[in-house]
């Protein structure tokens, strides 16, 4: 008897299963972003028009936005709008929120994605290198310095790192622009502010995982064969520590994406985060609602991407779940 189609082709089933897991989380994000402006105390329309606005004007604006309809009717209208790319209308400017997202989202991705890639590029080889040089109790001073530096960086909030980097590199040394988005150099400080703490966390965990791998019998056998260091560590050690390291990296993604709100505010970066902060102050709740939806969906999609990357690194994890 021939094997079932899914056993011969595990990837479609794997993708379908991961997508199915994503849908409930996406439904929660959709519902939470919708309920936000309905549950916040006060009247967002009154806040946008001012306390002196005529009641008739407030009522007309609420009717225009559909806020005078029952909760479930508003929710159905909200979902229908999303299917057509309608994220609502700003209470302050009257402009479509989708246009604001279209202009702001690339700027946020322009610092969040490089920050995540920089974290992987530094933490994975850095943790392995630290493990190689400190295994079996070697170089205790280097291990102490490594632990102290990474623990300090991991515990510093993003906005404190942002302020410190600005004072050192922009104001003190005048190497980089203080704020704004005038050229590629302007992205360096925001990327560093987003990447430093996650890199410090990940490099510590990579080192621990690498120490476990280096103590395995097959690594001792490989060293006894006097294999070249590049082959020994990159071919034998790195793949066996990659799964746990990438899993941790994926868990750091939500914090990095959430950190864009504060970092963009500090550096006046024209992204989703700064728009969300400005909208909270202005009580422009439809914009806040859309930004929460975008950031939440980005976190979910990033988690899916990490799952796919893990399956590529270790295909048996995907096939074994069939």
Summarize this structure as a short list of keywords or feature phrases:
single chain; mainly alpha; MetI-like fold; 78% helix; disordered N terminus
| Main pleated sheet | none
Share in helix:
over 70%
Total number of beta strands: 0
Number of helices: 14
CATH level-3 fold name of the largest domain: MetI-like fold
Shape: elongated
What layout of secondary structure does this protein have?
Layout: H1 5-8, H2 10-39, H3 44-49, H4 55-65, H5 71-83, H6 97-134, H7 140-155, H8 158-172, H9 188-214, H10 217-224, H11 229-266, H12 272-282, H13 285-313, H14 315-319
Helix pairs in contact: 2-5, 2-13, 6-9, 6-11, 6-13, 7-9, 8-9, 8-11, 9-11, 11-12, 11-13, 12-13
Please provide a written account of the structure:
The protein is 78% helix and 0% strand. By secondary structure, it is mostly helical. The protein folds into 2 domains: 10-83, no CATH class; 106-319, MetI-like (MetI-like fold), CATH 1.10.3720.10. Helix 6 (97-134) runs antiparallel to helix 11 (229-266). The longest helix has 38 residues, at 97-134.
């Amino acid at each position: 008897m021939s094997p079932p189609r899914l056993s011969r082709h595990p990837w479609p089933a794997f993708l379908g299963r991961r997508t199915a897991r994503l849908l409930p989380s996406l439904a929660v994000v959709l519902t939470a972003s919708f309920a936000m402006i309905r549950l916040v105390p006060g009247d967002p329309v009154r806040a946008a028009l001012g306390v002196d606005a005529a009641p008739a004007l407030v009522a007309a604006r609420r009717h225009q936005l559909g806020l005078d309809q029952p909760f479930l009717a508003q929710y159905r209208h909200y979902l229908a709008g999303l299917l057509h790319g309608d994220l609502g209308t700003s209470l302050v400017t009257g402009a479509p929120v989708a246009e604001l997202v279209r202009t702001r989202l690339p700027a946020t991705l322009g610092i969040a994605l490089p920050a995540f890639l920089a974290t992987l590029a530094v933490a994975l080889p850095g943790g392995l290198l630290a493990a190689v040089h400190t295994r079996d109790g070697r170089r205790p001073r280097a291990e102490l310095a490594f632990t102290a530096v990474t623990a300090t960086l991991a515990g510093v909030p993003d906005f404190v790192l942002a302020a410190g980097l600005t004072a050192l590199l922009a104001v003190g040394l005048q190497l980089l622009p203080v704020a704004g988005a005038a050229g590629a150099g302007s992205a360096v400080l925001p990327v560093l502010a987003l990447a430093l703490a996650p890199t410090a966390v990940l490099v510590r965990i990579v080192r621990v995982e690498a120490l476990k791998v280096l103590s395995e019998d097959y690594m001792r056998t490989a060293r006894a064969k006097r294999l070249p260091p590049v082959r020994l560590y990159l071919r034998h050690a790195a793949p066996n520590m990659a799964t746990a390291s990438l899993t941790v990296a994926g868990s750091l993604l939500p914090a990095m994406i959430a950190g864009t709100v504060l970092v963009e505010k500090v550096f006046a970066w024209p992204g989703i985060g700064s728009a969300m902060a400005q909208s909270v102050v202005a009580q422009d709740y439809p914009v806040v609602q859309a930004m929460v939806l975008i950031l939440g969906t980005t976190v979910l999609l990033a988690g899916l991407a990490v799952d796919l990357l893990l399956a590529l690194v270790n295909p048996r994890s995907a096939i074994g779940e069939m």
